[in-house]
Amino acid sequence: MITCQFKKLTKTAQIPTKAHLTDAGMDFYADENIVIPKGSKEVVPTGLALEMKWDVIDNFELFYNMENVLKAFIKNNFIPYLKIHSRSGLSLKQDIEVGAGVIDYDYRGEIKIILYNHSLHNDFIIHKGDKIAQGIVYILPKVNIIKVNDIIETVRGENGFGSTGV
Predict the structure, then answer these.
(1) What's the whole-model pTM score?
(2) How many domains does the chain contain in total?
(3) Which of 14, 28, 44, 49 has the fewest Cβ atoms nearer than 10 Å?
(4) pLDDT tens string 145-155
């Protein structure tokens, strides 16, 4: 399990919540009143900083002294991160979408959320305390990046951008 520990950077910041125990995402709240003009974007502060903890690494117990092997395997091969996603209701009803949104494991600054107002007709008003986005924790394998002179050819080759149909 991964525990998300949130530090309030302002007195008015709200810790993310889940409406249901089985929800994939946790709801993030605006920490300021902001207006996003139609066809525009704004950065919305949450007033929060995050530290993720690997509970499985800190609390895992196995027989035959495999605990250290498992801990080393996980720490050396996987990285958790938080991805900020749009809320479905805001997207459908208000044309509000999240832009970018990867919060790296070692980032400790304020979580700020880029919101795009795709409406052609209405400004979008955010009040302090409004739910504005949802965050989902993912775990990725660590990746080695190396330079090579050649790569193996495939049937697909360089065909991209709609090459398999629109």
Answers:
(1) 0.85
(2) 1
(3) 49
(4) 999 999 999 98
